[in-house]
Amino acid sequence: METYGLLVFPSQDYYGKELQKSEDLQTNACVTLARPLPTFIKEALKCVHDDVVSRYYGCGLVIPECLETCWILDLGSGSGRDCYMLSKLVGEKGHVTGIDMTDAQVEVAKKHIDYHMKKFGYQVPNVDFIHGYTEKLGDAGLKDESYDIVISNCVINLSPDKRAVLQEAYRVLKAGGEMYFSDVYASCDLPEDIRKHRVLWGECLGGALWWKDLYRIAEEVGFCPPRLVTASRITINNKELESVVGDCQFVSATFRLFKVPKKGPAERCQVIYNGGITGHERELEFDANFTFKEGDVVEVDAETAAILRSSRFAEEFLIRLAAGRAPAPGGCCPAKAKEKIVDPFQLVERLEAKDLAPKPAGCCGPKGCC
């Protein structure tokens, strides 16, 4: 078991007994939100019961795009806030399962199933909650290749065996499926005094992975290289904890991991977003490196092309080999491939400097395409 020298604390007690509401937290690790919420998600959030929202301790919003009819698994679902939002977004033909190791949180979530199904107008519940461990999904009865999407919100850092969590997520995902998750990451391999600090552990900092280890582990279990979506800096609101942390820095970051079938050599492609995904009709911000605007030609690397072609996004794009640099409709140049941002701390610096937004490809000038 890959424990990274962690001393495992009873997270069930910290989240089930010591924390009664989000305001009890000592850092902003579990309440950080890096991007503004789309209107349709705001509307879904309004439908979630107040008791569920008040017991929410996530570190981001883990709501990916293109969700209709999907089967989704939420690792460490807590009070069920994200599950209930997703229950509304996948529709009555989709399904959401939440799994959590904390009995008290599972009970909070289960208590409000009828309330939300009536709120959404569903005849049959499309959400369920089970007690179990993210490292042992099979023990909870979750079968191979049974979900389109696995989400997780500030939970993996609490696991003593992060490799097992990713391996199990990979196992239960269908081919072309995605793990979309927010978590806390460290700027370095954390020293023992931080790893063994009880409060820092409960606040999601003590168990944080060095971000480079995420890339290594994800690829070792079979995923494509992680795709960084967004990140935000974590601040500590306690002088004593600040002194323990020292020069170590932390971010809350969202990543996408795709389970793409191995199909031999892939090639660079040009892709055109068809538009129409709910809440992203004109523009799809896929990750920190690629934003697709409806109708625009964008050149992507072979890995990105394989993901788009093999995943639930396949029908949302026109994909063709990048044999030449054909101009986009209207005479504009397709966007050039650029160096990818993979370091969440680098992304935070760019965001804080308000320098992240990719510059749109300029239209062809009098001398032709650039």
The CATH first-level class of the largest domain comes to Alpha Beta
Element string (H = helix, E = strand): HHHEHEHHEEHEHHEHEHEEEEEHEH
Runs with pLDDT <50, length 5+? 1-12, 326-335, 356-370
Q: By helix and strand content, what is the structural category?
A: alpha/beta
Radius of gyration: 21 Å
What is CATH's topology name of the largest domain? Rossmann fold
Family: Belongs to the methyltransferase superfamily. Arsenite methyltransferase family.
Protein name: Arsenite methyltransferase
GO cellular component, one term: cytosol
EC number: 2.1.1.137
In short:
The chain is an alpha/beta fold and 370 residues long.
Question: How would you describe this structure to a colleague?
Answer:
The protein is α/β, with parallel strands linked by helices and 370 residues long. The chain folds into 2 domains: 24-259, Vaccinia Virus protein VP39 (Rossmann fold, 3-Layer(aba) Sandwich); 264-323, Ribosomal Protein L9, domain 1. It is built from 13 helices and 13 strands. The chain has helices at residues 11-18, 39-46, 50-54, 81-90, 103-111, 113-120, 162-172, 192-195, 198-202, 211-221, 239-245, 302-310, 344-352; strands at 71-75, 95-100, 127-131, 147-153, 173-186, 209-210, 227-233, 250-258, 269-273, 283-285, 291-293, 297-300, 317-321. The strands form 3 sheets. Strands 1, 2, 3, 4, 5, 6, 7 and 8 form an 8-stranded mixed sheet that branches. Strands 12-9-13 form a 3-stranded antiparallel sheet. It has a two-stranded antiparallel sheet with strand order 10-11. Strand 1 (71-75), helix 4 (81-90) and strand 2 form a beta-alpha-beta unit. The N and C termini lie far apart (53 Å). Residues 1-12, 326-335 and 356-370 have low confidence and may be disordered. Its EC number is 2.1.1.137. It is an enzyme of class 2 (transferase). Belongs to the methyltransferase superfamily. Arsenite methyltransferase family.
